[in-house]
Backbone:
């Protein structure tokens, strides 16, 4: 998949395995999922979604 590909809210929710409502919460809450506004459309770049997930990896204590 192309990292600059723009995804809809529904596609982003499916990619992350969460509900659309959760995506909207993450764009306004503390988690601050990066997004683009194109007129009235909310879009997400695949690279931003991947970075969002990678930034939440909890490393084990050794």
Residues:
């Amino acid at each position: 998949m192309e990292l600059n590909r723009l995804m809809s809210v529904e596609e982003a929710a499916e990619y992350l395995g969460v509900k659309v409502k959760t995506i909207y919460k993450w764009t306004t809450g503390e988690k601050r999922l990066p997004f683009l506004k194109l007129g009235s459309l909310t879009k997400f770049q695949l690279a931003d979604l991947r970075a969002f997930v990678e930034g939440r990896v909890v490393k084990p204590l050794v």
Summary: The two ends are 35 Å apart (CA to CA). The mean pLDDT is 90.
